Amino acid sequence: MRMTIRAQAVQLPTEYKTIKPKGQLVLARVPEAQRKTSGGLYLPSSAQKAATTGTVVSVGDGRVDGRTHEFTVCADQTILYSKFGIGVTELEQGSDKFVLIREEDILGVLPRNGTPTSSIASLEPLHDRVLVKVESAAEESLGGVLLPESAKSKPVSGEVVAHGPGKVKKDGTLKPTRVKSGQRVVYFKYAGDSIEAEDGTRYVVLREQDILCTV
Fold this sequence. Notes:
The protein has 215 residues and is mainly beta. The protein has one helix at residues 116-119, and strands at 10-11, 25-29, 53-59, 63-64, 67-68, 78-81, 89-93, 96-102, 106-110, 124-125, 129-134, 157-163, 166-168, 174-176, 184-187, 193-196, 202-207, 211-214. It has an eight-stranded mixed beta sheet, with no helix packed on it. The radius of gyration is 19 Å and the shape is globular.
């Protein structure tokens, strides 16, 4: 089971009006956690979903290990980041909530004001990230017996919907992504971040290195 321990948000003094990220960090404003269901019911604190999207406010100066990082994201874009991102620093300034995150930990860019459930199919993955539409789990065993939910194998294959340009190496050069949209791939069972769209379609955003093969 994958677990993440998040520190409490850093509360900034109210006299500080500007937050300026450094290096390859990105500052994004995040919405409040989801407090209601789509039917209007209030959720208890334990059931509220933390935001994993944000609107880019600013980016750092790009200086990293003696070189200058070229940013892909820019101000006002809506980004999707990992709910397991241990590199995410949460900040609070009055009633405003922000995150500081390395650009390489951002999964991709969503349409403006998009949410993971409503617009995941339109995600533009960053760097070596790949968006895969997950194949449905088998409903029956090989003998034709209907499987209960607990007995269904976790899908490990799907169709590539979109991919980033590639991984930026330490020397600043680009290693292009090799998979292509439309290819069927098999990936490491526990890799990536799973997202379910409003219509029930499941997707996973993973790094290309977590893809085992194309079929």
